[in-house]
Amino acid sequence: MATGCIAAFTSLDSTELSIYTMEETRTNRRLSEKVLRLKTYHTSWVLSCLLMCSVTINLSLPLISACLLDNRLWGLFLLAGLLIVVGEILPQVIFPRYPIVILGNLMWFVYIILALYAIPAGMLVLILHYVVSHGSGKRRIVYDTKQLSALIDLHSQREDKGGRLSVDSVRVIQGALDLENRVAGDIMKPISDVKMLNVKDRMNIDRWKRVINWGYSRIPVYSSIRENRRADSPYQDCPIKIWGYLHCFDMMSPDPKEVTTLRSVPIHALPIVGEDFPLWDLLHLFQV
């Protein structure tokens, strides 16, 4: 079991265990917390204790069998085969496949080993700490935005990926991550490509349907060029004047059977931002 515990312990990192502790299943969360508590100790010291236990068992069993079997050769070969198959191969195959469940339920066994080999393993690790390196023995993987996006892509259900996340879910997650390093200038479009309404437009049910079919939650409202070019207008150099925007919820308030103008509909002030304005802040701005 010591060999299997080593294989299970080395197959898990702190990041993976932290994810397991957030699972909804109470049993898995409890077992993950036990293993994560073990990870808080010096990793090299824990591995040294487990390795010393494994080596002690593997060396002592041939000596015990030699005494019990009167140094018979067939007994030594039989025991060596059992040690290789049962003591090394099977634990290396089984334990890493279910590390949380197995290691979590064998924590009592691991703590016994740590108690028995604490002093010799501690002395060995202390020597190695000053001779080989000065690291703490702890390692936690933290991904940046690009690495996390690539990790999400590996979990896609596409044929070449084999993950469990749908393609749409992956796009939504990657889109949210992409907002981290993007600014308003990256998504700006020419004013000629923007769907807008004139403040003097007369709206009937057919016009409301067409606006809704545009698929936008906010529609800018502008005034004509002639009004902007009056002598007292501050917008003489601009082709149009943006009065604000019409929210999709405001389209539900007018009576669709009546012909109305946009002046009778609430027009919200349009926020003004620079090209370097972060997209996350822009998203929060529109959520207000």
Automatic annotation (TrEMBL):
A Pfam cross-reference name: CNNM
Gene3D superfamilies documented for this protein: CBS-domain
CNNM transmembrane domain residues: 4-158
Keywords, ordered alphabetically: Membrane, Repeat, Transmembrane, Transmembrane helix
Domain of life according to the entry: Eukaryota
Annotated InterPro entries: ACDP, CBS_dom_sf, CNNM
GO CC annotations, alphabetized: cytoplasm
Segments traversing the membrane: 41-61, 73-94, 106-132
GO biological process: one example: magnesium ion homeostasis
Protein name, UniProt field: CNNM transmembrane domain-containing protein
Source organism of the structure: Tuber borchii (White truffle)
